[in-house]
Write a structure and sequence with these properties.
With 204 residues, the chain is an alpha/beta fold. The protein has a single domain (9-203), classed as Rossmann fold. Helix content is 36%, strand content 14%. The protein has 9 helices and 6 strands. The chain has helices at 24-31, 42-45, 53-61, 79-88, 130-133, 135-143, 166-181, 187-191, 196-203; strands at 9-13, 37-41, 65-71, 106-112, 147-148, 152-154. Strands 1, 2, 3, 4, 5 and 6 form a 6-stranded parallel beta sheet that branches. Helix 1 packs across helix 7. It starts with 8 loop residues before the first strand and ends with a helix.
Length: 204
């Protein structure tokens, strides 16, 4: 049996206050030298939010997996990722009658939250699961003919270092990148989960 061509992964890293980042920046550094992974620091590349649409569209076409790497800000993404979506995911490029450039690519978010996991359910403080809160991104992926995967998440980020949860999470993220690139993740099962963490733990 022929070995499948490795998937190329584009990670769009967005944190507007990296000097305060304990989780997201750590994850970015953990995967920046992995084969078949391209890491883009959006705030470093576009400090005035003037997105180069043509460059970003070419990056999308050159990769098979798209990852938004960011902390959860107000139940969504940092501002630059919204600007990126508004400008890059153009009609007849990403969606519309002729917009098939992203068809069949994989998409998910790697996120961290300040609140603990218990805050993200119907009885919790935030009233919804993390996957439910990220529905607009799931619908964006669907509109762009992409395969949406649930978030890879670290809850309770503020205490992750002292509770010694950050390093295992970093290692799990690296493993996720490798499995995706090497076609070793069950995409069908992953699509049905609340988080990708669950799938990795079940398949470990």
């Amino acid at each position: 049996m022929d070995t499948p061509t490795p998937r190329r992964i584009l990670v769009l890293f967005a944190h507007p206050a990296q000097q305060h980042s304990e989780v997201t920046l750590s994850l970015a550094r953990a995967i920046m030298t992995l084969p078949n992974v391209t890491l883009v620091d959006l705030y470093a590349e576009y400090p005035t939010l003037e997105i180069n649409t043509a460059r970003e569209q070419q990056r999308l076409m050159d990769h098979d997996v798209i990852v938004f790497l960011h902390p959860i800000y107000w139940y969504s993404t940092p501002a630059i990722l919204k600007e990126w979506q508004d400008l890059v995911l153009e009609y007849n490029f990403a969606y519309g009658h002729k917009g098939l450039a992203l068809k069949d690519k994989l998409f998910f978010c790697a996120v961290s939250t300040g609140a603990k996991a218990g805050a993200y359910d119907a009885q919790g403080y935030n009233r919804y699961t993390l996957r439910e809160l990220l529905r607009p991104l799931e619908m964006t992926a669907n509109l762009c003919h992409m395969h949406y995967l649930p978030p890879f998440a670290l809850y309770g980020a503020r205490t992750a270092v002292e509770e010694q949860r950050l390093e295992p999470h970093r290692q799990q993220f690296v493993e996720l990148m490798k499995r995706l690139s090497e076609h070793r993740l069950d995409i069908s099962s992953a699509s049905q989960a609340d988080t990708l963490n669950e799938i990795l733990e079940a398949q470990s």
